């Protein structure tokens, strides 16, 4: 198999909690990311799902070097990005770009669209010579489905969906290989979400991009991802191909998460079995011993408080074959259908651009 | 009928002109029934709710026409004093953002107890006892200790439970919930929606659920009203609408959401953007985005055609839409 484009191993991000003003004493840490491993292949989309506070956005920030990891490595084409600096780092950052969640705050209101999309060229002038920039920005506007004549307009003259297209155009400006998208459609209306998702799908094929797609909406993540990782309290608890996770989940947290998603089908209302989790997510300053999910898990036993389950194919499933055999960090992993299976959707017409 | 809204029109005066937020809404909800009002931002769903509750900012808002009948009385003809007696006691509202709807400098016990002190003239001490009872009822653990705590000491889900407790306090006949779970995570959303449905059954209340989430609607609603540009474009029992939508906008919405149970092809996307409420297109407001639009749609505003006794669609071509 070809070398993965990104390889993340043992990634940690702990924010220290201190007490006192002059003599700062560390009294603990917010363990936002607490041991994350995954790989991303070329042209692939890896979805990361999880509830708020699970550390998925912190992972995104570390991938694009907006946060320095406390420990661990992020290898881009075999080279550890966390150890690079200066020119070498700059070259890598060009190839890993980010699309942010909120299209209202991630664009500078005082800059024109042309300046926003063209700004990456100021930092990486080798990508586009000065005289060529305007044409390149107009090309980018065209690629994301905006009128190239809008180049001199300001962000407030655009709707939310159009602004997100501007954010995507900026992400594409340097022709990166990897795009990290953190909740790129969650601020948009339902009818506009589909437009932006279709755009991202199209751009992936056109530019041979690899995506790390972070979201809390499980349906959207399934739609766009080849593989999906489920995060809970700073760690990936289950990871696999989309059908493995959605149709054959083995980790109780994934099962609870999937069963809680409201499905737009009133017929399914009576037949489905809901797993309602008790309580809230524990604080990341005080992560439970052993399995971090055990405090809300209906299967938890004494062993779960003592042993940390590794993210691997569980031993008792190793001899089997089929989609239930994938990495799952649970000592008692067991397949369970969590999504009611509906009828196939009708063949509707082609989507608009 | 518990609540009946007839031909409601609401507009906002702004510097740039008049924005027509609600343009002739008719809907009703009975005791024990759940009506879901579905729409995107700017569709007028929240403004309708605010008009019913009587908490619309006026000015700039103005109710241009219509009737809001609550237990056969037109609320719009009442004096503010009389409305205040109804609000909270007979109808209550749950807002989306619990943190900004609660007072940060008062303990939750004080805020819950206040309902009884103000409306029923109870003493502060009795109010506190009632607050504990309510917190128990919405299943907040250790209510007796937590009654003294402040909103910031509760998690998002627990805060939304406090909002529900506050709405339930005086056992109203009608509850309006405006995106009650939008700010919550899915596992917590499931807890809160289940609690709300259970309490509704227990008290036999009417519930108006305002949301943009087609999944939440399918889970709890009895009937549904789909809003677009300030009008109800389709209204139907919930089972009918998901089986076969009778309006192209509803159809577009249903087809544009990805599915959890299978990986789909390219998503259907409704083209274009929702209209500017200051310049609502003539004829059918949806025609610039509609794949079925014809000449008549650009000129004639469709009435709410009767699809069946319990179902209406504001589309000239609802038959075509319904059958394929």
From TrEMBL, chain A:
Any GO MF annotation of the entry: ATP binding
Keyword annotations: ATP-binding, Nucleotide-binding, Transport
Record bears the keyword Secreted: no
Ranges of residues in domain ABC transporter: 6-258
SMART domains: AAA (SM00382)
Pfam family, one: oligo_HPY
A single GO BP: transmembrane transport
Key word ATP-binding present: yes
Domain of life according to the entry: Bacteria
Matching InterPro entries: AAA+_ATPase (IPR003593), ABC_transp_ATP-bind (IPR050319), ABC_transporter-like_ATP-bd (IPR003439), ABC_transporter-like_CS (IPR017871), Oligopep_ABC_C (IPR013563), P-loop_NTPase (IPR027417)
Gene3D superfamilies in alphabetical order: P-loop containing nucleotide triphosphate hydrolases (3.40.50.300)
Family: Belongs to the ABC transporter superfamily.
Protein name: Peptide ABC transporter ATP-binding protein
TrEMBL record, chain B:
Any single Gene Ontology cellular-component annotation: plasma membrane
Keyword field: ATP-binding, Cell membrane, Membrane, Nucleotide-binding, Transport
Membrane topology: Peripheral membrane protein
PROSITE patterns, A to Z: ABC_TRANSPORTER_1, ABC_TRANSPORTER_2
GO molecular function, one term: ATP binding
CDD domains: ABC_NikE_OppD_transporters
Annotated ranges, domain ABC transporter: 5-254
InterPro entries: AAA+_ATPase (IPR003593), ABC_Ni/Peptide_Import (IPR050388), ABC_transporter-like_ATP-bd (IPR003439), ABC_transporter-like_CS (IPR017871), Oligopep_ABC_C (IPR013563), P-loop_NTPase (IPR027417)
Pfam families given in the database record: ABC_tran, oligo_HPY
Subcellular compartments: Cell membrane
Highest taxon in the source lineage: Bacteria
GO biological process, one term: peptide transport
Main location: membrane
Ligase found in the keyword field: no
PANTHER family tied to this protein: DIPEPTIDE TRANSPORT ATP-BINDING PROTEIN DPPD, OLIGOPEPTIDE TRANSPORT ATP-BINDING PROTEIN APPD
NCBIfam families: oligo_HPY
The family this protein is said to belong to: Belongs to the ABC transporter superfamily.
Name the record gives this protein: Methionine ABC transporter ATP-binding protein
